[in-house]
Amino acid sequence: MTRFNTYLVNGSFDQAISPLDRGFAYGDGVFRTMVMRNSLPDNWPQHYQKLVADCAVIGIVCPSAELLMSDLQQLFAIDEIAVAKIVITRGEGARGYAPPAITTPTRAVIKSPMPQYSMNHLVNGVNLHVCNIQMAHQPKLAGIKHLNRLENIMARMEWHEDNIFDGILLDQQDSVIECTMSNIFARFNHTLITPDLRFCGVAGITRQRIIGLAAMLKLNIEVKKISLDALLQADEILICNSLYGAFQVSKIGDATLPQHGLAKTIRSALNV
Amino acid sequence: MTRFNTYLVNGSFDQAISPLDRGFAYGDGVFRTMVMRNSLPDNWPQHYQKLVADCAVIGIVCPSAELLMSDLQQLFAIDEIAVAKIVITRGEGARGYAPPAITTPTRAVIKSPMPQYSMNHLVNGVNLHVCNIQMAHQPKLAGIKHLNRLENIMARMEWHEDNIFDGILLDQQDSVIECTMSNIFARFNHTLITPDLRFCGVAGITRQRIIGLAAMLKLNIEVKKISLDALLQADEILICNSLYGAFQVSKIGDATLPQHGLAKTIRSALNV
Predict the structure, then answer these.
(1) Chain A contact set for B7 (CB, 8 A)
(2) Is the dihedral of CA B92, B94, B99, B104 positive or negative?
(3) What is the mean pLDDT of residues A127-143?
(4) Which residues of chain A have a CB within 8 Å of the CB of B149?
């Protein structure tokens, strides 16, 4: 029965979001997106840890893992592979930016179909648009996956071509940060470089997992500032997120990139 | 009857916001806050014009003035003075940053009590905290009152003292931008200076009205970059928004400021 519903709000199939919810009013909350298989989320410990950490940055106490897991298991059937999105907001409040003294966070769990990735992405890699919008530095919010995503939307509105998979985002100093829905890695010889996200960007859990796997793959890791020109000199480039795992990048704008199977190796190490 | 309801969503007292609404998912929308008297919003032409303009920046077609006015008149009784907030979002959409090809904007109209401003604010002026968080530059979103307001929330969480009315926000170049819920003007002799908002901040309609009234008050207007140190040398300072009109600033952090009745003159010119 549950498989016909698309969402649960605070554990109920009958609730929606109040316009007084601070998530709606101000984007005052955080979210996660993950793959569900057999009614279980892939990499749940990492997702839940990140959710708790992101909530803490903006002063929200994250609902318990038990509560969220119970929501997920009500919404997702044992025989389906689908996408779960968990949104946690600060809850309802009176008008004004000051959070209420006592708040009850709102939790929404939403089901979406698993995207159908083209076989072509696995075999030949993906093309990236170079976005015109440049990301703003805000060290107090950098790294977390909060609900203030207008920059990503403005970036995503820049292209309509079906053969572009994602857009690469630079900051206002022309350093590469990430893609609109992905993190990015570049291999130079035996070193994997991924951009420093202390000033902007979302530090996703697949990025974190790849950083953790590098030693096993005999690769050094450097988290640092890198320009687009420097990135384009890489031996190969991949992008990653929790849904597709990792894809080789075949083109960035007009530049065609070398490919040596890094994404395939990483996918295998990630077990996707 | 209607006065017992707090909000209307898409013209209905029975609706709420879907978790699939892009306003909730990404802060993909804009809003306005205004005073209602006799079932009519103060300065409606300016508010509606700003709503249309802000929507256009992010590619939303604003619902008609007639539709919004009809919502307001359903929600607000003739004999009450209260605050109306209008939220316009891009509407519902599937997961992902790309806006759907066809969208129907969501409109929420919310009633809140009119804040009870202290007589002390009118007589002695208000104190401002100097916020630690520094605003990020994003020229593609600057000036508009969008739903991505985590910076304002983080700023507002910095103080708890009842005798602080608002917090002054600087950008990362240490220029003064605005306050968390107000714009700011400083008078130097016969010139009113207000910060340039091309890189961050919200260009409110009361700020725009004051700029328009300056000539009548025999004041020059300069919209420019100004540091906090330079601001503190002003002959007097005021802050403004659509609810309280204008208040004289008596203190910024530890600095006590001169007062010569500018806010009173401006309130009178604004007709508040």
Answers:
(1) 18-20
(2) negative
(3) 98
(4) 25-28, 97, 148
